[in-house]
Amino acid sequence: MDPDDLVIRPAKPEEAELLSHMIFRARTYWDYPRELMDYWAERGDLSITPEEIEENPTYVAEDSDEALGFYSLETAEDGSSLIANLWVMPEYVGSEIPSSLFFHACELAKTSGSDCLFMISDPNAAAFYEEMGAERIGEKLAKFSEGQSALPVFRLRL
Prior knowledge:
This protein is of the alpha+beta class and 158 residues long. The protein has a single domain, classed as Gcn5-related N-acetyltransferase (GNAT) (Aminopeptidase), CATH 3.40.630.30. It has five helices and seven strands. The protein has a seven-stranded mixed β-sheet with strand order 1-2-3-4-5-7-6. Strand 4 (81-88), helix 4 and strand 5 (116-120) form a beta-alpha-beta unit. The longest helix has 15 residues, at 97-111. It is globular, with a radius of gyration of 15 Å.
């Protein structure tokens, strides 16, 4: 893939199924147990809906009309932004695509008036957010199929 061919464009609601498939594929990259993947799927944690795409800024990274990754932002009442999704196809983990999406999200959040961008990270993605300059500020307990786990929470001042 030629980095010059990468385009980041708004997602369309009719792409929800495609983007949901991307979330599922991205999660499989980390070799989570099948039971946990099934649990997340039942809860809707491995999907994005057309309504979510319409309600929250959602952007797709593509090359030659092939979707390679996407992100979505949510805005809190205090005006701060949260990366609700940032996923890439497994073959692009470690490429420039995740950082391109991240910096695009930062710019969008900043131009929308946010002074902070928050992330609740999969533990496997924590190093990525640290490399992007985000500061770990705590943890959020998440219910898993057989108990709880702590997810790192990051903040980046814009």
